[in-house]
Amino acid sequence: MSLEIKVPPVGESITEVVLSRWIKNDGDVVEMDEVIAELESDKATFELTAEQAGTLKTIAAEGDTLAIGAVVCKIEDGGAAASPKSEVESPKSDAQAPVAVAESPKTQDSGLVTKDSYATGTPSPAAGKILAEKGIDAGAVKGTGVDGRITKDDAVKAEAGKKAEAPKASAPVAAAAPAGSRGERREKMSPLRRTVAKRLVAVKNETAMLTTFNEVNMKPIMDLRGKYKDQFKEKFGVGLGFMSFFTKAVTEALKDFPAVNGRIEGEELVYNDFADISIAVSAPKGLVVPVIRNAESMTLAQIEKSVLELALKARDSKLTIEEMTGGTFTITNGGVFGSMMSTPIINAPQSAILGMHNIVERPVAEKGEVVIRPMMYVALSYDHRIIDGRESVGFLVRVKQLLEDPSRLLLGI
Hints:
- The protein has helices spanning 125-134, 152-164, 191-206, 219-236, 242-256, 300-315, 321-324, 389-404, 407-411, and strands at residues 2-6, 16-22, 29-30, 35-40, 45-49, 54-58, 65-67, 71-76, 209-217, 263-265, 268-270, 277-279, 281-283, 286-288, 291-292, 329-333, 352-356, 359-366, 369-383.
- By secondary structure, it is α+β, with helices and mostly antiparallel strands.
- It folds into 2 domains: 2-76, CATH 2.40.50.100; 196-411, Chloramphenicol Acetyltransferase (2-Layer Sandwich).
- Strands 9, 12, 15, 16, 17, 18 and 19 form a 7-stranded mixed beta sheet that branches. It has a 4-stranded antiparallel beta sheet with strand order 1-8-6-3, with no helix packed on it.
- It starts with a strand and ends with a helix.
- The relative contact order is 0.11.
């Protein structure tokens, strides 16, 4: 008796998945609850487990798109591995069929050969004049006159035939082949990449998105990290990074500008009194955005631990639907890839996203003097339908103030 293993329901909005990888092969002996395959949806990767012990019989292939409830494989009773498939190979014959080569007989002249006379091939005076004027060799013209003499009519016809011949076109010069490889490869878009593509286009088309910029002097935060990072790591077991400072600054600024933390639903504006911060993470299969719940009530150490945990899960494709669902505001850090400035796209249905960038030492004016400071450009993309220019600029200025004076984050002022 065999048991069919079907695609399980993995989420309310998910109707199909892709069989991304077989962990066990056809004919392998599997145990109860052993992972046999990985399924990928447009939001996350899931593991498919064996519902009984036995021998695996695969049905779907890697890369197949399967509807929820579709049969992926069967598990047959018994622990013996399936017998290998016998391969019948037709014997190769070293002897090759003889190739019959028919030798064509030598062509013999079948025409009547007559003895040439002095008139053969000789043009008449009129014909000679025509041939000379037109540049035609008399040897190329066959005479039809007495004893093969070339008549005037023969010369005229020979000229007409020459004109009728189409001039030979010179062969086009082939362009020199460029050096190096010119190969290309095609691969099917993953469900995650297809969903990201659709959502990004939808956001651009359905929101009134604008971006405002500012710059932050990162020296105070860098000095603070340099002073306490070893003690922080020793006490909390996690490094002190920039993301915790930015997350904390954002949650404080959202209290002053609640519209940035809201969203539009139909004809209603929804404002949140909590801050679920989405952190954009570059995973092997594409961009994912896990959520830190109630970040406004977390300490810097708690935020750092949450960021590290979610980043490791994203790297290993272990994020769940719940960990990527929701979120009221997004932070993305293009600076880790060297980006100096960008305009991030809103993570719908949210209304705003903050973009961090790389830190560059630049000359700035400070108390009437030119000094070198580690500066970072920050960008806030927002939906102008719910957030006005005053609120967007005010929010970004508030974030700047909190970052340039980190003590405010601790005092809440």
